[in-house]
Each structure stands twice: as C-alpha cells, then as structure tokens.
Amino acid sequence: xxxxxxxxxxxxxxxxxxxxxxxxxxxxxxxxxxxxxxxxxxxxxxxxxxxxxxxxxxxxxxxxxxxxxxxxxxxxxxxxxxxxxxxxxxxxxxxxxxxxxxxxxxxxxxxxxxxxxxxxxxxxxxxxxxxxxxxxxxxxxxxxxxxxxxxxxxxxxxxxxxxxxxxxxxxxxxxxxxxxxxxxxxxxxxxxxxxxxxxxxxxxxxxxxxxxxxxxxxxxxxxxxxxxxxxxxxxxxxxxxxxx
Amino acid sequence: xxxxxxxxxxxxxxxxxxxxxxxxxxxxxxxxxxxxxxxxxxxxxxxxxxxxxxxxxxxxxxxxxxxxxxxxxxxxxxxxxxxxxxxxxxxxxxxxxxxxxxxxxxxxxxxxxxxxxxxxxxxxxxxxxxxxxxxxxxxxxxxxxxxxxxxxxxxxxxxxxxxxxxxxxxxxxxxxxxxxxxxxxxxxxxxxxxxxxxxxxxxxxxxxxxxxxxxxxxxxxxxxxxxxxxxxxxxxxxxxxxxxxxxxxxxxxxxxxxxxxx
Lengths: 244, 262
Hints:
The complex is a heterodimer.
Chain A: H1 3-24, E1 34-35, H2 52-57, E2 67-68, E3 75-77, E4 84-87, E5 91-96, E6 99-103, E7 109-110, E8 116-117, E9 123-126, E10 129-130, E11 142-144, E12 149-152, E13 155-159, E14 162-164, E15 171-175, E16 178-181, E17 188-189, E18 194-197, E19 199-201, H3 207-230, H4 234-243
Antiparallel strand pairs in A: 1-2, 3-19, 4-18, 5-6, 5-9, 5-14, 6-16, 7-8, 9-10, 11-12, 12-13, 14-17, 15-16
Chain B: H1 2-27, E1 37-43, E2 46-50, E3 55-57, E4 60-61, E5 66-69, E6 72-79, E7 86-88, E8 95-98, E9 102-106, E10 112-115, E11 121-122, E12 128-129, E13 135-137, E14 146-151, E15 156-161, E16 168-172, E17 175-177, E18 185-188, E19 191-193, E20 202-204, E21 213-216, E22 218-220, H2 226-260
Antiparallel strand pairs in B: 1-6, 2-5, 3-4, 7-22, 8-21, 9-10, 9-13, 9-17, 11-12, 14-15, 15-16, 17-20, 18-19
Helix pairs in contact in B: 1-2
C-alpha cells in the first residue's frame, strides 16, 4: 500500500469531517465556515507536481491546514432589540476569565444585574467596561446605533466595543461561537464595520456548495480505495480521471 | 471519520430542536400574551490536530493550524418579548400591556407567577382572577352591584355601581418588570416564574418609569408570525436533510473502505 494513498484517504476523511461540521452549523448565528480544499478554487493539477507522489494521488487534501472563511453572512431581521448583526469584518468582544474572545454572534441578553451578556453568560465588552442597562428603562426601548452606541429614549447608556483584525487569520475558533486571537495579535478599533440592531447574521455556510464538496470527497475517497486495491499503474490513470 | 457521524448527528438534533420550538410557537399562535421562543446555537469545541504557528522548517512557522470542529450545540432558548398586536375585544376585563411589564398572579400555594395574558374574569367572591381562576395580585374585588368596569392606562380599576353616574375606584392593577425578562422560566398556562437569572421583580405603576400602559378592552395577541415560523421550519427541515446526507456520504465512504477487506 502506498503511503500517498493512505495520506490521501486520511486527508479526505478530515475533509469530510470539516464539511460535516459546516453542515451541522448551517443555522448557527454568526458561524464562519471552515474552508475545505474542495470548496475553494479547484486545485491546479500538474503545476509544481514534480514528484510522482503528487501526480499520483494529486490530492490537496493531504495538505493538513484549515482556515476560516470570514465572509459576511446574510442578515436576517428579527426585530429583537438586543439582536445586533455586524456588517463588515469586525467582531464583538467578550470578556472571559481567560481573556478576550471575539464573536460575530450578536444575540445578546442581559443577566440578573442588567449587564449585557452573550448566550453563555460571558460579558459583552463596552467601549468603557461592561455595558449595564439601567433597570428603569425597558429593553424594548434600547436603541443601538450603527457605530455600536447604545441609548434609550435619547439617553446614552454606553457603546459596544467593536474591533477589527488587520489579518483575521490570527483568529482560531474555540467553539461556543467565539474566536481567540493567537500569539500577540491584538485588534484595532472598527472602521469599516457597522452594527445593525434587530438583525442576526446567519451562518455563512452555503449548503449547496458543501454538498457538492461532499460528493467530490466521497467519490475521491472511493477512487483512492480502488487505487489501493489495484496497486497497479492503472491507479494513476484513475486518479487523473478523478481530478480532471 | 466516525467522529463526523456524531458531528452530523449534532446537526440533526439541533434542527430537530428547532422544529420542536417552531411547532410550539405555531401551536400558540392564537394564545393571548404568548411570546415566541427561538433556540440559539453555538459551534462545539474544536479538536486541534496541529497547532498553528508550529515550526515547519527552521525559522518558518505554519500560518494556520489544523483543527476539526465537532458540530453544534443548542446554547439556550430565548423568549422574544417583542410587542404582540392588540386586539379589540370590548370586554371590560380584557387587559393588554402596551410596552414592558407583566401582571402578577397569586398561585394557591402563595407563590407568585407572571403573565402577559390579561383575559381576566370575576370569580364568585367578586375577585379579579385569570382565565384559570388564579387571583390577580394585588387583589381587586369588584362589588356585586357594579354595572360596568373601566381600567385606566395606569391600572386604576373604576366601577359604576347601581344607579350612580360617577365612577368609584376599587383598586389598582400593578405591573412588574424584570432586569432580564428572557431569564424567566415558563410554567405553562401562560405563566412565567422568577429565576435567579431573571433578577427580582420590580413593581411599578403602568405607564411610569419604563412600564407599559394598560389598555382595557384589548387582548395582546401572541407575537408569533406565521410566515417567519414557516420559513424557519423549511430552513430547519432542509438543514436536517443535508446533515442526514452527510452521514450517508460518510457511510458510503466507509463501505468502500470495508469492501477492500474481502
């Protein structure tokens, strides 16, 4: 059994797992899809393929990296006063005991102390400390401007802290809708991002694209298994057909 | 790869929960004072196979790592307290709250419950009670010779008795608010209960300090919008199907591999 085929099969298995994860989060607010090899531009077969290994299995799936597609999700109107969607590349900031976390899920609520929190109870950072809604105002009367400024009936309450990363690839998904910035990367204030009250940002998973990738992965997997089974030169031809 | 089966399964479970929630919303489309709920989802933890920034060659760091997600989990249900439409019923004791606030209801055991359903009645003792017969707090008793009842925007209850032409006040219906109304627990029967998350009830007069005003002769309809729910239902159903498709695809892949060993 050739090691390339095995590594291709492992890569395809991982690819399949990434697609399954994207599809599971097709309706998760603020979710950003993982870029799979087959949902990107098709790989250029033959270019730089100077070893027989790369031309045999020619599978970019063996390249074990994964990145996040931070493209904008659709904005869905809900009318809820504490739903805020971002349009642009910015993030909301969550204060946790392990440091700052960044999220695109703006389905906020208040806790028993009137403090603005996310679904997991993590405090939403304001421009100057946590945002606290005074008990004398109605939640329905809360107004959030496109710059994140919060007011109620004309009285300012605070502002949401919205940040942007020059290079969003420093962000790693951590689960629970949050990203953590790796290394010493720190965000700057948002300049190109606007907040929209009463909206939620839908997941940016495109089910059709993921399904097409799923079919490709399935077929390539089957093709690779056949390569393994035949252990002959016919396998090479088979893979060329599969990748064409 | 078997991990991906459970990943896709979390997606199916999540969509199933969405459908359950939508079904409950639709079932309560004509329930007075009902507030729709939605489920908030979050992605599950990631399995890190390779750390980003690891050294791939002397002085060269990999720009991205390799992490695999493990699906989705429901984070919470969220009751959406947007205003429902007010429907004119003409009944004296149908009360709707326009704005923030809840009526307080006293249970037989003495504990308090809160509701937006203001379709009140009078029981045999003349007390104002909910449709289920629970007393409204603070208690208001309507004299037996009352001709008509008028509830003001501030909650004052006035009655015209016998042949009198002037109204006399017999009580006031007060409202309560919570720092976090979404944190109230649903008790069924249109009743909500206080929890540590909701914060303590703040009593007040209707129409003052952020409290909504009371509209007599109106009922607040549920805030469920049929079109929105149906669109969400279709979305959930399709998402369920594609997650099932992901499992089927994985099954095919494993089957192919299994056929190798013969």
